[in-house]
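Table S2 (continued). Query chain:
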Amino acid sequence: MHQAFSVVLLAAVSLVCLSLLFFHALTRVPSWPLAESEAADVVALLRDANLSRSAVIYDLGCGWGSLLIALAKAFPDAHVRGVEISPFPCFVARLRTRYLPNVSVVGKNFYKCDLADADAVTCYLMTSAMPRLSKFLDETVRPGTTVVTVTFWFRDRSPKMVKNGPGLRGAVALYVWPANSAPGHTG
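Corresponding output:
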């Protein structure tokens, strides 16, 4: 009995690890948790953006749900929507937010989402994902939508506001989409 439990547990852990590796290879973005201080900076920038009380806020690549929780608590009347392609982090995000009535989490590729109702979009991705995300946002969000990125910025856009993190922690940038092209950028 003990040996059978060990084998099942080992198989389950192996499947989770393989799943994380597979989706990291697929997206080139690891499921990295967001620090509380980074989430606080995102919330501060979104507060400065004067979102409506019932704003729709998407967290693209929501990972383990840390930012979803911070957003749900900071904006209790908002509709906070997490999107995560990797099954295990998505499961954990759903589990962590199950008692937050203003949060929903879907397991899918965020490039297949309709963001037309977004008042704000947040993301903590990687440098390699930002050019494609920039084009995707051009096609899917309304002009004037607030976009907040953690650590990795859009190189072809100019942020409206920036909050620098201490030490080695990255900065958080707020854009008002479509955000003007960065100086010297030719397209």
